[in-house]
Design brief:
By secondary structure, the protein is an alpha+beta fold. The chain folds into 3 domains: about 170 residues, no CATH class; about 55 residues, no CATH class; about 150 residues, 2-Layer Sandwich (60s Ribosomal Protein L30, Chain: A), CATH 3.30.1330. A 4-stranded mixed β-sheet has the order 3-6-4-5. The protein has a two-stranded antiparallel sheet with strand order 1-2. α3 crosses α4 and α5 packs across α7. It is elongated.
């Protein structure tokens, strides 16, 4: 049986909870119910866009969701408005994802439901923990890793988009779901373009045949409908044709599109951990070509031996399996493996020192981004200190969005490249 994540969340927001929320906020129960009907898909859309944008995004959402699930929020939903800590976390996560668009979303939902903007914000703060708690429970119950969770959330986008009330349909673009609607509209347009010539031909054929052959028109129209259905169901909805890599732009399309079998694109490469042995005999589990490999090779190279601190300033190495909970400086549990690896590398090369750098994308307030990136860099520094190599990590600094290259209005998957934590070697 297929799962609709929107319906699952709605089961955890019963009418008595809506009634309590209305009483607490001094809003009518009906208006609160309308607001929640828009908030649930809006919040789910944000997390779906984040989780399906990259495996890193999926890992961040998954770890955060499991944390909320383990907090027992699903078993105490009726007391949420008395839990200031959970409400604060819900608000922070929502703002962390939307940045400067937060207030416009809150106001849109308030106007749609006929409630105060402050009430809209409070309801969002209530729904976020419930959504994350349910996502964490679903992932745990089904033993989903980051990759499987990303696929699951991506598969739910159409359910989420269709659950947005008509008065809030424009939010699809902000939530990163508009591509679904655009794809459906494009498919319908393609069907119309494909079917129109056939329909015209059918009509002309029947007319030219005279009155005795007008019975042909319904049959020909059925053929047109069959063609349209084939296009929509076969080509439009299940188009698995591999995307061009740009290597050969002169390829000629097949002349018989009706018999062309769509080609299934190759599955994305799955990263697999491999064993790495350090000079002191310590063995690590790391991704080939990841930060561990890069650091070890560079430390042992002539380039590093001959480098000065000035030349090293431009040589940064990005963590590829280190994440933080949304909008916070708290490292996720899944980050421990790579932090332990970096600590082990520093212990194997006791003369090496590093600096930690934190970076954000352009979305949100500049000052807040700078503060967040600095806090995250120092959180990594603190974790390495706790692992026993604090003296080898004397510096940690956040750079905010100063080096971000992707526009703040770009899709989340594009902006992900600007959100990173890195290290560079020091020679002082």
């Amino acid at each position: 049986m297929s799962i609709n994540i929107v319906d699952l969340v709605k089961n955890y927001v019963p009418q008595d909870l809506i009634a309590k929320a209305g009483s607490f906020l001094n809003e009518s129960e009906g208006n609160v119910s309308n607001a929640v009907s828009g908030i649930i898909p809006a919040v789910l859309g944000l997390f779906a866009s984040k989780a399906s944008s990259s495996e890193q995004g999926a890992a961040e959402v998954l770890d955060t969701a499991k944390g909320f699930s383990n907090s027992g929020v699903l078993n105490s939903a009726d007391t949420l408005f008395g839990n200031a800590d959970l409400l604060s976390k819900g608000s922070s996560l929502f703002k962390g994802l939307l940045g400067d668009k937060t207030n416009s979303i809150i106001d849109s939902i308030a106007n749609f439901a006929g409630i105060k903007s402050s009430s809209s914000g409070s309801l969002i703060s209530m729904v976020v923990p419930l959504v994350l708690g349910l996502l964490g429970k679903h992932a745990t119950d089904n033993n989903l890793n980051a990759s499987a969770f990303s696929s699951f959330m991506g598969s739910q986008k159409s359910n989420i988009l269709s659950a947005l009330p008509s008065g809030l349909g424009s939010l699809g673009t902000v939530l990163g779901l508009s591509s679904i609607r655009d794809g459906v509209q494009q498919t319908v347009s393609n069907v119309q373009e494909t079917a129109a010539p056939a329909y015209n031909y059918a009509r002309e054929t029947a007319q030219n045949a005279g009155g005795g052959a007008k019975w042909l028109l319904p049959l020909l129209l059925l053929a047109v409908i069959a063609l349209a259905l084939w296009y929509f169901l076969g080509k439009g909805c299940n188009n698995n044709t591999a995307t061009s890599t740009g290597a050969d732009t002169t390829a000629v399309a097949p002349t018989d599109t009706l018999t062309t079998v769509p080609q299934t694109p190759p599955a994305p490469a799955v990263k697999t951990l491999a064993e790495v042995t350090l000079p002191n005999g310590t063995k690590l589990q790391a991704y080939p070509g990841g930060i561990e490999d890069q650091l070890i090779q560079f430390i042992q190279s002539d380039e590093y031996k001959n480098a000065t601190d000035s030349t090293l300033k431009e040589k940064w190495f990005n963590f590829d399996d280190l994440n933080f909970e949304f909008g916070t400086t708290k490292l996720t549990d899944s980050s421990k493996r790579q932090l332990d690896n970096i600590a082990a590398i520093l212990k194997a090369f006791p003369d090496v020192k590093i600096k930690v750098g934190g970076y954000t994308d352009k979305k949100g307030d500049d000052a807040a981004n700078l503060k967040l990136s600095d806090g995250r860099a120092k959180a990594v520094q603190a974790a390495l200190k706790a692992a026993g190599v604090g003296a080898q990590v004397p510096q940690a600094e956040g750079y905010g969005e100063t080096l971000a290259k992707v526009d703040e209005n770009a899709p989340d998957e594009a902006r992900a490249a600007d959100r990173r934590t890195s290290v560079r070697l020091l020679k002082k």
